[in-house]
Design a protein that fits this description.
single chain; 258 residues; mainly alpha
């Protein structure tokens, strides 16, 4: 029995490391990495809320490494400078992290499938059906600012699918997929920073799992950042759409827990 328990713990550790790598890779390319890490952490024995907090903190190093690796492509959009987008993301991420500690995550968990579906449909429309989609913004400065503010609060609170939402919003603002991907990664690290500051001292934080998950996310994030700037843009678009469809179906089919 002891041998079996030891083997099970080792398999869980390996699963957490693999989940961290995959989440980092997925976050760099499109988003939705937390949908990989949350089930694995809950399988390891964490409650849904503890898994959410631990995942948010653990994925932060991967977000930073990914954001820094693509910093030369980062920029503003729809007449807004990157500094403004960053400040909005800082404030929104902190507010979302505070809300996470004060309220159950069930409400936002129920919204996630619809948000990811919406972002995927917007991405498809902006990538394949909008006339003159490259550099032709469909969102003005105010709409873009409001969108990023809402996304930032959501990112600090729950975070699932935040990459899809930002990618869709930035491309609707007129960015190419590569620049939107790099800017999305940088803003995600900003949102993650404020959320981490709020959540890091939570009694629900599980450090052993977070360290394993974080190490995997850094490696995966660097691999994803490399692919983001080198893979053909048509392949990137197909990957994002496919991932969005799979995540949306999985989210609608999974049970909601608070």
């Amino acid at each position: 029995m002891r041998d079996h328990a030891g083997i099970y713990r080792m398999l869980i550790i390996i699963a957490i490391a693999i989940a961290g790598f995959w989440a980092g890779l997925q976050n760099a390319l499109a988003g939705g990495g937390s949908f990989v890490t949350l089930p694995v952490l809950m399988l390891a024995g964490l409650s849904p809320l503890a898994a959410n907090i631990t995942s948010t903190v653990a994925l932060f190093p991967g977000q930073v490494s990914t954001g820094l690796s693509g910093r030369h492509r980062v920029g503003g959009v729809a007449g807004l400078s990157f500094l403004i987008l960053m400040l909005v993301s800082l404030i929104g991420g902190a507010l979302g992290g505070w809300l996470l500690l004060k309220t159950p995550s069930t409400v936002f968990a129920r919204m996630v499938p619809w948000l990811v579906l919406f972002a995927t449909l917007v991405f498809i429309w902006g990538s394949y059906f909008r006339k003159g989609n490259t550099g032709q913004p469909s969102l003005g400065p105010i709409a873009t600012l409001v969108s990023q503010s809402i996304i930032a609060v959501y990112g600090g609170y729950f975070g699932g699918g935040i990459g899809f939402l930002m990618l869709a919003a930035l491309m609707m603002g007129g960015m190419s997929i590569r620049q939107a991907g790099a800017t999305k990664n940088a803003l995600a690290s900003v949102i993650g920073l404020t959320a981490v500051i709020v959540l890091v001292n939570s009694p629900l934080m599980h450090w052993r799992e977070a360290l394993i998950l974080g190490a995997g996310s850094v490696v995966g994030g660097l691999c994803g950042a490399w692919a983001l700037h080198r893979v053909d843009e048509r392949i990137l678009r197909i990957w994002v759409v496919a991932l969005g469809v799979v995540l949306t179906l999985g989210l609608f089919l999974r049970p909601i827990s608070g």
